[in-house]
Amino acid sequence: MNTQTTSPVIKEEEEKEEGTKEVVQEEEEASHPYAFHVSGPRNLANLNWRDLISSSWKDANYKRTVIACFIQAVYLLELDRQENRTQENALAPNWWIPFKYKLTQTLIDERDGSIFGAILEWDRSAAMADLVLLRPSGAPKAVLALRGTLLKSPTMRRDIEDDLRFLAWESLKGSVRFKVALEVLKSVSDTYGSSNVCIAGHSLGAGFALQVGKALAKEGIYVETHLFNPPSVSLAMSLRNIGEKAELVWKRLKSMLPSSSNEEAQAGNDGDKSLSIGLKSWIPRLSSSFKNAGFGVGKWVPHLYVNNSDYICCSYTDPECSGGGEKINDADKENIGPMNGQVAAKLFVVSKEKQKFHEAHALEQWWSSDAQLQQANSKLISRQLKSLYTSGGTSPQVMQGKLPR
């Protein structure tokens, strides 16, 4: 019987080779551009027992930073999946572990199996290990984070399909991702209470977060919402604006034409009404996501973070984006609800010199230590949320809704 033995020299060389591979792999992981210590936020204080007295989460900059990191984690969850990373070398966990959160659920797009969202919940065990005995004030119990478009072949097709859906119709409700995100957010809100839940997204993910949050607000479920670089440009909106301008020009033109009799004046008025009805009934049909639902007073105030050098979201700061062609009494108060004077949204604009698009649209800018934000107004978001501020009968569900913390 032949027995095969391994030479001690050969065995030693194999062990050295394996050790070298492990070192190289560790070095590659340590220098990866998406590693938390490479591209994550700088000078970020760790949570400790002092947060029981003065919570870091009460600082708007800290909250914005952490939530942006959670969204980055969702991008990396999908990249980890595509690159077959294991639990030992995955990049995503390091973007939530420092903040004492844990991954409890991933949202999967059934069309391609990609991860487009995740639920991150407060990790009580990890917090207690660092003597944080209670969840700090302002820290949500659960966060639903939604990523934007990934230009990688496994998921790029489905991402772009939803991008085009918004571009054409200004609505994402027909996407399977909208349905999944809505169901998950409802479930989490039922579990923890809407005041303890947050939804956030970047780019396309911000578009989903905006529409999911609004859908729940109409049911009286108000969740804290953070939208980074939300899409604002759509063909539907452009056509509507063209129609509004054409209607305005037509009215001005008609006012300049002489009328010889009351009959002609009446005929002119009838013509104006016919044109106005035609324009208002045809063009706005392209934008089905912002129909007036007839609900009562809204209490949902999303936070928007935009960059004027980013053409995807810059329309939110465009003063020409008026409220859908309808007269607003508080015209000078751009992000005030037209019916009840409540704030429709909080808009924050990054203050930097003109940037290239990839920099202006990047998620990284929102945890950058040199980010200077200015609060601004937005007629566009006021128009989009107008159905939450109508004077119709107040729904019992709306009256029972709770304000987010």
Automatic annotation (TrEMBL):
Coiled coil: none
Region (Disordered): 1-30
Top-level taxon of origin: Eukaryota
Protein name: Fungal lipase-like domain-containing protein
Biased composition regions of type Basic and acidic residues, renumbered to the chain: 10-24
InterPro entries, A to Z: AB_hydrolase_fold (IPR029058)
Organism: Glycine max
